[in-house]
């Protein structure tokens, strides 16, 4: 029980430390809120695309090479703004 409380408290302290560091970076002009939003968007897009590719490969039993072809066709249909963010991730 005590160990769980310590782990929980440690997790909270790390999250608070991360939050303060983020606020510091924003207030010092090291990173902007827009950049932070882009980073979160990039990570979300990457997770979605990776999940989609894994599901396609599993469902249709295709090779890695066929997944690459599918990925290229898929990304060629994305708007440039989304493609840039996905490639940056």
SSE string: HHHH
Helix content: over 70%
Strand element count: 0
Shape: flat
- The number of helical elements comes to 4
Describe, in plain words, how this protein is organized in 3D.
The protein has 89 residues and is mostly helical. The chain is 85% helix and 0% strand. The protein has four helices and no strands. α2 (33-60) packs across α4. The protein is flat, with a radius of gyration of 19 Å. The termini are far apart.
Give me some keywords for this one:
about 90 residues, mainly alpha, 4 helices, flat
Secondary-structure topology with pairs:
Elements: H1 2-27, H2 33-60, H3 64-76, H4 80-88
TL;DR?
The chain has 89 residues and is mostly helical. The chain contains 4 helices and no strands.
